[in-house]
Give the backbone structure.
Amino acid sequence: MIIYEPEEDSDVNEFPWTVTFEPSGGDDWDSFICGPYERDHAVALAEAVALDDAEGGVLAIVKPMLPALSAEDVTATIEELREAALEEEAEAEETVNGTPVDFDDDELEEEEAEFEEPPSPEEIREGMARQYRRLLDLDADAE
C-alpha cells in the first residue's frame, strides 16, 4: 500500500482523495481509480482491501486530487515535482564520512493498519458529498 503523507497542516489534506487499485505480483488485471473521498475514508478503504487480500496481489495507492484549472497549472505542478525529485536525488547522493549513503528498500518497516474497519457506504456517501460541495465552492470562487 502506498499512501501520500502530507504535513498535518497542509491544505492538501482538504483536497478530494483517490485510491488506485492495481495488480501486484503475478496478477494481471486492469487497474482502476475510486473516489473522490475524504483522506481518512480513502486510507481506510485502501487498507481494508489491500491488507485483507490474502493473495497479496492488490496494490492500493492513496493520493490527493489536485485542483488544476488550466494546462499552465498542470505544467507548473510538474515542474515543482521535477525540482523536488532532483533535490531528493542530490540529497541521496550526499556522503556521510566520505561514504555514499545507500538507501535499502528492505529496511522499510511494515506499518499496521490505521483504521480497524472501512467506513460504511453511508459514511463514504456523506464524505463524497462534502468533497463535491468543496469542489463546487472552488468553482464559484474562480468566477
Summary: The helical segments are 39-50, 71-92, 121-142. DSSP finds three helices and six strands in the chain. The radius of gyration is 18 Å. The first helix runs from residue 39 to 50.
